Amino acid sequence: MIIMENECGCVLIINTEEQHPEVVTKMTGVKATKLFVKGEPHIDKKTGKERSGTQYLRNIWEWDPGRLYGSEWQIEDATCKILDMVQSNPGFKTVFETFKKCFFRGYAYVYDFHIVVGFSPETLHKLHEVGIPFEFDLYSFKEDAVSD
């Protein structure tokens, strides 16, 4: 049996509506880690190949500081990396005023039976100051269901 490590992180997602997602890069000077362009073929994450007959439905600019691995839940660390970038760059204020569908997405891929996610009062205050929603995606896997 393969023992899988827990993974977690946070991404900043900006739906640029009818504009090409590169507009966020032009407004902030920050290059996206992923771009999804409406109408372009959907790429399978596992294979890196186009999925036949499917297209992206939205224009999305995404920035991910990277996944964290292990038994400690460090979603706050990943969130703070994004908050520091956003708060130090005045271009993001303009982005958040221009595009109404912006949010943080925390995520965890869990192979344990129990997790706890928490944020310090300082991080909660920073999230409040930035003023965009925070979503959380949790994916729970039973370790005995993973095989080699």
Task: Offer a few descriptive terms.
148 residues; 4 helices; alpha+beta; 26% helix; flat; 6-stranded mixed β-sheet
What would a concise description of this structure say?
By secondary structure, this protein is an alpha+beta fold. The chain has helices spanning 22-28, 75-87, 91-98, 121-130, and strands at residues 7-15, 34-36, 41-43, 50-55, 60-63, 68-69, 101-110, 134-140.
Number of helices: 4
Main pleated-sheet profile: 6 strands, mixed
What gyration radius follows from the Cα positions, in whole Å? 17 Å
Instruction: Give the strand content.
Output: 25-35%
Q: Write down the overall mean pLDDT.
A: 87
Number of domains: 1
Counting DSSP E segments of at least 2 residues, the number of strands comes to 8
Query: What general outline do the C-alpha atoms trace?
Result: flat
* Intertermini distance: 6 Å
What's the order of the H and E elements? EHEEEEEHHEHE
Residues in helices, as a percent range:
25-40%
* Secondary-structure content class: alpha+beta
Low-confidence stretches: none
What does this structure look like?
- There is one protein chain.
- By secondary structure, the chain is an alpha+beta fold.
- It has one domain.
- It is built from four helices and eight strands.
- Strands 1, 2, 5, 6, 7 and 8 form a six-stranded mixed sheet that branches.
- α4 links the parallel β7 (101-110) and β8 (134-140).
- α2 (75-87) crosses α4.
- The longest helix is centred in the middle third of the chain and has 13 residues, at 75-87.
- The termini are close together.
